[in-house]
Each structure stands twice: as C-alpha cells, then as structure tokens.
Specification:
By secondary structure, this protein is mainly beta. The protein is built from 1 helix and 10 strands; from the N terminus they run βββββββαβββ. Strands 1, 2, 3, 4, 5, 6, 7, 8, 9 and 10 form a 10-stranded antiparallel β-sheet that branches.
C-alpha cells in the first residue's frame, strides 16, 4: 500500500510500506535459545522515475525506496534500522491477450547496522559450540527477481507469481544465522473487487 504525494509524467514521490511475520525461536533450530524475531513494519519515502509510461500498454520504471523499520510483539515497539531497496520494474498490459498483465521486478536489498544486527548478530551470551559469536555488518543483503501474471475479468482477479532470491553475495554469509544462499517463493492468489471509487487514480 502507498500514499502518493507527487505524480507527473516522469516521476512519482510517495510513501511505501512493508513488513514481515515473526519467527519463534522454539520453531527455529538456528535461533534456539535466542530472542524471538517479532513482527516488523517498514515505512518510508520512495522516488520513482518512469522510463516508459502508458497505462494501456506498459510501464518501465526505477524506484528508490528508503524505509525505516520497527518491530513489535504488540506489547512493546522498538526501532530496528533502515532498508534501502533500489528496484527495476516492468509491466506489460494485455500480454498475449486482453486482461492478462505481466509484471517483472528486480530488487537489490541493503541493510544498515540495526537491520543487520537484528537478523544476523550472535552475541557472546548466545554462543554455542555450533553457533559462533558474530558481529553483523551493514551492507548488501541480496537480490530478488520476481515474475507475475495477473488475469482480471469483471471484478475477479487471478494472480500467479514466482520469486527468486539470491543471498550468495550477502555481507553476512559468515553468520550462523545465514542459513541459505538461495530461496524460491511461489504464489497463487485469487481476488474479488467488492467496490471501487468512481474517480480513479493514475494506474
């Protein structure tokens, strides 16, 4: 979701949001006896430059979001750090046939010290024979590439998507909490539009 403050032919300036689900250490062997990872939320400004923009044909754009991150268990709230995630996106509308849209994105993810510590730091008090103490570093986390198809008919939406994440160049691969270099995510979704405003925003 987002709030758009400025929009013209070539630029958008808006606020973007994100988040992640918690991890309980009792269900995670790598983090056994360590504190849980709480729900996280992200909020911050995003500047988008459009290389090509036609709501009936296609969009090609480069985005630069910077989001501050907080974590919560709904009893306490605390800041975590910042995320910088430059992204390239290309959308092709009416791909192959009418009402089928194709979406492609490639994102580079960078963490500051706070984010790196939250996910990859192992302090000496949580050191074990298998899990060495580790001082996490700010820098490159990894990249993700996503491809999605959306088909809409009347007020119904079908979405198929896949995402490939590569963490082989992460600055924290040495951390015991870095458990995988590659991750695949596949998604299928169905949506129903119950209502929409008569006055529409820019697509």
């Amino acid at each position: 979701t987002r709030f758009r403050f400025i929009s013209n032919k070539n630029f958008d300036f808006d606020m973007s949001f994100g988040g992640s689900f918690p991890t309980e250490t009792g269900n995670n062997k790598a983090r056994s006896s360590m504190p849980n990872l709480d729900f996280t939320g992200e909020i911050g400004p995003r500047l988008t430059y459009y290389l090509y923009r036609d709501k009936n044909i296609a969009q090609v754009r480069i985005g630069l979001p910077l989001r501050g991150t907080f974590a919560t268990d709904f009893k306490k709230w605390y800041g975590v750090g910042f995320v910088l995630a430059p992204i390239f996106q290309a959308n092709k509308y009416n791909f192959l046939f009418e009402n089928l849209d194709l979406f492609f994105s490639h994102t580079l993810n960078y963490l500051d010290n706070g984010q790196a510590d939250y996910f990859f730091e192992v302090s000496t008090k949580y050191e074990t024979p298998e899990r060495s103490a580790y001082d996490a570093h700010a820098g490159f986390l990894g990249s993700s590439t996503s491809l999605a198809l959306k088909y809409q008919w009347n007020n119904k939406i079908l979405l198929l998507a896949t995402s490939y994440s590569d963490y082989t160049q992460s600055v924290n691969t040495v951390s015991y909490l870095h458990r995988s270099n590659i991750n695949w995510t596949n998604f299928i979704g169905f949506g129903w539009i119950f209502s929409k405003s008569e006055k529409r925003g820019i697509k």
